[in-house]
Specification:
Elements lengths: L4 H6 L2 H18 L10 H18 L9 E6 L2 E4 L4 E4 L2 H4 L8 H11 L5 E2 L6 H15 L5 E7 L2 H16 L4 E5 L10 H4 L14 E5 L7 H18 L4 E6 L2 E2 L6 E2 L2 H13 L3 E6 L11 H4 L8 E4 L6 E6 L15 E2 H16 L8 H19 L4 E7 L2 E6 L4 H13 L2 E2 L1 E3 L5 E5 L7 H26 L4
Parallel strand pairs: 3-17, 6-7, 6-8, 8-11, 11-12
Antiparallel strand pairs: 1-2, 2-3, 4-14, 5-13, 9-10, 12-13, 15-16, 16-19, 18-19
The structure holds pyridoxal-5'-phosphate.
Pyridoxal-5'-phosphate (PLP) binds next to helix 7.
């Protein structure tokens, strides 16, 4: 048997040369992206008209006036109005490698040459097997026992699949435990889990959810005891009815980047496991943000996790399960698991994280984190009127600007966007400014450039607000 036609094409010298030329072309055109740039006045008008048309079609304007041109370099991204900005939120955690990383260009070319745009359960290529094997290996490398997994195209769908396999195993238990202020996604079922009234307004109650308070770092022992007591209370009120508890190990959207601790999680997970309640770690946002691939590994909870979901930076999302959770035929299936480009890019990213030293207590994720949070600590010490914090862990970083009034924080972030740095809001009261760093494409020197801008804009914004309050023109 000769070589597979696909392999022969992938190794064809013309493909190698085409990739080399594409990388060279990319490098040449990226070279002009050296820092923040204001919009081009000539592009501005058309850009605003496009934004207005887009907003009208969507029925709501975009959160930021952001339409990418498709080009960037590392943490810098070019918008279609000609402006260049520092992207420190990365599409809420997606552009982990920074913009236009050459390794992802190669992955894109490989994917474009496959016969398949979208892979699916009935027909998928060997790239899907390769990715799943990588994810299972990454999950098990400190002792967890994930035996199977399913790829899918969104974090919400990964969580849906997780809940389905758990409910099937735990049937007839049908209730779910979750943390107050958690975010789990926006499907009909998950809008009941996500603890935000506005996101479920008008929707039918698809799931019965009981809430548990999260860890409070100012009251470690008390908050742990309270959370355990609340869990026990729910289990007494509904004996045998809880199928699982969903753990967001670092609270993201709702909490504003609040990590728990190993002691806290162990104290909660032990009685749950003893009662036959499954542990689902929702790592859609935390995957690749701590010293390990998974936050459950960072916290040393490998022995306690039954099911874990991941997404965002992995491009293709996944649900990984222990052997006992293997579903009956037909429970989990989809026409599309994920696009070929997402699947190939995911494998490149997962490998890159280990091979390029992103992981580990002194890996790039934690080093970048220290650089950013040291500066935030210093700011909070020098100017407590401007900033409190920092919050978060690893590549998830937040602070409370100006006391945390949600409207004020949103307006500050919009001003920061206009001045060339993109962050995002999180939490409720207080609201926080948060950042998800493009770990694969950002350097400590970028943080040194961005931080003074963040501080200057904050200080100018605070001053302007004070003047407005005092009624000055
Ligand atoms: C913890 C967590 N779970 C689930 C989701 C849902 O993922 P997606 O938006 O890809 O559906 C998110 C998204 O922000 C998340 O942060």
């Amino acid at each position: 048997m000769g070589k597979l036609a696909a392999k022969a094409m992938a190794e064809d010298p013309r493909v190698t040369e085409a990739k080399r030329l594409l990388r060279e072309t990319l490098r040449d055109h990226q070279a002009g992206l050296t820092g923040i740039r204001p919009p081009d006045p000539e592009l501005r008008k058309g850009y605003e008209e496009t934004l207005a048309r887009f907003g009208a079609m969507r029925g709501a304007s975009l959160y930021y006036p952001y339409l990418g041109s498709g080009m960037g370099r590392g943490a810098l991204v070019e918008l279609a109005d000609g402006s260049v900005k520092y992207d420190f939120i990365t599409g809420i955690g997606v552009h982990y490698m920074g913009h236009n990383h050459p390794a992802l260009l190669d992955a894109g070319v490989d994917a474009a040459m496959e016969n398949t745009v979208m892979q699916g359960n009935l027909q998928q290529n060997s790239a899907s097997e390769e990715l799943l094997a990588l994810l299972l290996k990454a999950a098990n490398r400190k002792g967890a026992k994930m035996a199977h997994g399913f790829l899918t195209s969104s974090g919400a769908m990964a969580n849906e699949n997780a809940l389905k396999v758990i409910f099937q195993k735990r049937s007839p238990a049908h209730r779910v435990l979750a943390f107050e202020h958690c975010f789990a996604g926006r499907t009909l079922a998950l809008s009941q889990v996500t603890d935000k009234a506005a996101y479920r307004q008008g929707l039918p109650e698809t799931l019965a959810v009981d809430y548990v308070p999260f860890y409070d770092e100012n009251r470690p022992a008390e908050s742990t005891a309270e959370a355990v007591a609340v869990i026990k209370g729910h289990m007494e009120r509904h004996p045998g009815a809880h199928a699982c508890m969903i753990f967001e190990l670092i609270q993201g959207e709702g909490g504003g980047y609040l990590p728990g601790t190993p002691e806290f999680f162990r104290a909660l997970m032990a009685p749950l496991r003893a009662a036959g309640v499954s542990i689902l770690a929702d790592e859609i946002q935390t995957f690749g943000r701590t010293s390990e691939y998974f936050a459950f590994q960072h916290f040393g909870l490998d022995d306690l996790i039954d099911v874990v979901t991941l997404g965002k930076l992995s491009q293709a999302c996944a649900t990984l399960i222990r052997e006992e959770y293997k579903p009956k035929a037909g429970l989990v299936s989809q026409t599309f698991t994920a696009p070929s480009v997402a699947i190939r890019s995911a494998s490149v990213i997962v490998r890159y994280m280990e091979e390029q030293g992103l992981l580990g207590a002194d890996g790039k994720i934690m080093r970048l984190s220290r650089r950013f949070t040291d500066k935030l600590k210093d700011l909070a010490r020098r100017r407590p009127d401007l900033a409190a914090g920092p919050f978060g862990m690893g590549g998830m970083i937040a602070f409370t600007p100006l006391g945390g009034d949600p409207d004020l924080v949103a307006r500050y972030l919009r001003k920061l966007f206009d001045e060339g740095v993109i962050g995002f809001i999180a939490g409720g009261k207080p609201a926080k400014a948060r950042f998800l760093l493009p770990v694969g494409g950002v350097e400590e020197s970028d943080i040194d450039i961005v931080f003074p801008i963040l501080e200057r804009v904050l200080s100018e914004f605070a001053e302007a607000e004070t003047k407005t309050e005092k009624g000055a023109p």
